[in-house]
Records
---
Amino acid sequence: MARSVLGVVVGGAAWMLAFFALATLLAQLWPDYAVHGRQWIAAGIFTFTPAMACCNLALWVLAETGAGWVTAKIARRPAAVWVLAGLIAIYLAAVHLLLDWPRFPPWYNLGVVIPAIPAVLLGERLANR
């Protein structure tokens, strides 16, 4: 049980850290992305171009996959990965479908939420190969 809880906690932390680390790396490689990222952080204004927003979607999927992998390796129980997937999905749904829907394009909101559970479960699958 303790391994499962630890796996979910570490996986959740890894999810957030991975997204921000990947976004920081992308900002180093793509200066215009960095400008839009700073606008988002400073004022909460979503000015990313569609290409930049698609990169964000890919970064979320990579972070979710990594979180599922980390959780599976630590917990060694599929139920822990499902708990993490559910928690991430609930969080993203609350933010992107309820609280902040008007702040983002609809396709972006859906693109963040819909792949969340499958991406976390993909991470589990990769961990168990």
---
Amino acid sequence: MSEMKWELLDDNVFVYLVADLLQQLEFTAIQYQGDGPDGGLDLFATQLVALGIQTPQPFRWGIQCKFSVTAKRRSVGDAEIKDVEGILRSERYLAQELRGYMLVTNRRITQNVIERLRGIDARSSFRASTIDGTQLELVLAKHPSLVERYFNRVQATVRHLGSPTLVAQFDHTVSPSVPTVEVHLRSAYSGANSKGVSARAILDPGAAVTMIPIYAVHALQLREYDSVSVQGVLGGHQVAPVYAVTIELGGTEIGPVGMIALGAIDYVLIGWDVMKELIVLWDGPNESLQVWAEEANSEQDVGAETQQSGATENPAAA
């Protein structure tokens, strides 16, 4: 089993990972709690539970996620787990009709916390369950598409008419030396006055399509309308969802644009599908950014020509 690169995630992305994993495990009606007081619940999910020969009944879990980039080198202790029964009974979560509490973490769990939760399981009407870092990694290993989506450096390939076309190769975080621009995203299915999200973006003329981070998908509550086959650096394929998004950059709005969503990035990668529209539309104050985009594309073309010329001049090397 390959080591999980937890440093690529943060607290919010970890919650998205847990939600996606629960969906893979056939939990339903998954809801995000959103921002709230520390010590509260992060997710709600329903599991069908069968007792003996009875028909499976819906069991509603309140799920608390605890994340650390150092993973199993840290533990979840008593101070981080508040009054679990009080939380489950609180008016804030009354409408959820919760029947159980689940702690999911990529860290270790102290014995004190384990015993406290066992006590709740034994003496109250609520059930309690835990998934620690070791268990989580074992379960994730059975779902390679999630590992690829959230942990691996990605070289994306979109298959069109059976022929793979290179999209881009990129790292999780933008290097400080790479210029970024501010963009605004919103769902293409929402109104012009709907709330969107802002994000950092880089322009890559070598990328065939535009890609957005998974946190933007959740923030905008986007609906998948298509999918493409994406190939990882080490081989293997996954099906990546495509979302219809409107993007605003430099005072210009373009959309809807079909964008691939990946958990392996924390920025927007603007590909040639959007850049070619911007170069036609931009003028005046956006001229410098337009020139930069054109120069970047020119440099790529020159590099390709140089490589081809070198191969021609030195057939033996080819």
